[in-house]
Amino acid sequence: MTLARAFSFIHSHTQSPSWRQGSPAAGNFEAPLWRLQPQQPHDDDDAAVDDEKAAKKRRKEEKKAKKAAAKASVATSVESTPAATPAPVASTSAAASFTPTNPTAARAFLESNNITIEAPEESNERPPLPMVDFRELEGKIDAAVKKTLDAQGFSTPTPIQACCWPVLLQNKDVVGIAETGSGKTFAFGLPALQHLVTKHNVFDGNKKKAKGAQVNVLVVAPTRELAIQTEENLAKLGKSMGIGMICLYGGVSKQEQVRLLNQTPTVRIVVGTPGRVLDMARDGSLDLSGVTYLVLDEADRMLDKGFEPDIRAIIGMCKSREEGRHTSMFSATWPPAVRGLAESFMNGPVRVTVGSDELSANRRVEQTVEVLADGYAKERRLNDFLRSVNAQRSKDKILIFALYKKEAQRIEQTLRRGGFKVSGIHGDLGQNERIASLERFKLAETPLLVATDVAARGLDIPNVEHVVNYTFPLTIEDYVHRIGRTGRGGKTGKSLTFFTDMDKAHAGELIRVLKDADQKVPEDLTKFPTTIKKKTHSSYGDHFKELVPGKAKKITFDDD
């Protein structure tokens, strides 16, 4: 009985049309994939015995390796002279091997969270099982990193963390497909710290020769808000270890960021937006030649915003994959443009998909769509809704989306005159004002936040109870991302969408999204034309089928 009986490691010979060119070693995905998914439960007992034997054998090998490493360490310390720089933190193996202590629980975890893990066959390794308990990190990561993680008070890893940690801690590339708010920051953040502890040596030597500050970990994000949020979360992990980091983004003084970068010798992690990172790298303020751990967060959004040339230029300034650069890419969807980027710059990545890699609405969000006559009706309905949920006194957070900046300002002013505590975030606000608005909303000091789509992706605002689409967005993709601001982290949420005759072109797409998520379709919505014009987007490809079933209409033509 082998592990293969317990899982369907499907040796697929069908080629994906998006993974075609190049050799497997160069990141090609044409090769067949090992696919790790839960299968029949009747094999669990036999599989568990085999897995436990393998785990026991693995532990023995690790124990031997540790003893050998200890002897080597003693010999090296006797022969070497004292270093002028502080000694690195003692570390475990740079590429820890993961065998779950409870394979049955790992299989159940895959099934209950609808997870698929795939790796190119040419790696000669099946994808690792998820790590469903933090205790499984014992002996696999440095004690200081583990202590930092324990201090965060997490009870169990999220699905994306459980599946990515075993891969990233073995120094392999990862493509993570999961919804925003699923814990992706710590999914790549913890391995980043381990990478710095075990692999980092640039600050001991090369930094003296660098033109500007040099870093080893680079995280690129599509928006200023997401970059700031990511840096704040990573700082919680790295602060106790003395690992410095900085966030680089536009809208504020570049000179001040350069000054901070140069005056902080402990900076090893940079989080930033593509434009500002590339700008500072080109003018010599930021040296990317020492980057060995690269993360592209919200990759689909960055490509959708037209950042692909900037991303490719940034990657070209980092160490190459042949020089040992490890790359992680996280995305909510898996469109052709993202696949192409992965083919170009990643080295045989393991692909972890939590849920579906297609654009779909979060099923934990209860969607309500109301068809209204006009803008005046929307204003009255919003006021009635807010009073019905006691928004003037309750601290339940409600995120209200407008389509344009002027509209957002008008809604904010109207609500404030009505006695509501409200903040706004849109393009006309300065960066400091936007940060302050977000902080007030997160702390529920102002439980209402009026936003344009700048806040629709990436921001992880906890405990948003309601999302209101005051004006329907320009695309159905933005609709899905908007309502995804609630119902995060396994919780439920509610969305309310106002739909008018001005939005009728989106009726067919909206009906399909509602049906796919098993949501109620209001009868008034079906009265609009439901034909969907097939769209081909440079990032998202073909979105939807041609037609949505609707009521037949008789069309007559005049003879003349």
From TrEMBL:
Compositionally biased spans, kind Low complexity: 70-86
Record-annotated DEAD-box RNA helicase Q domain positions: 134-162
Top-level taxonomic group: Eukaryota
EC number(s) stated in the UniProt entry for this protein: 3.6.4.13
Domain Helicase ATP-binding: 165-352
Biased composition (Polar residues): 11-21
Signal peptide span: none
SMART domains given in the database record: DEXDc, HELICc
Top-tier EC class: hydrolase
Role, per record: ATP-dependent RNA helicase required for 60S ribosomal subunit synthesis. Involved in efficient pre-rRNA processing, predominantly at site A3, which is necessary for the normal formation of 25S and 5.8S rRNAs.
Protein's name in the database: RNA helicase
Native source species: Sporisorium scitamineum
Lineage: Eukaryota, Fungi, Dikarya, Basidiomycota, Ustilaginomycotina
Gene that produces this protein: SSCI33430.1
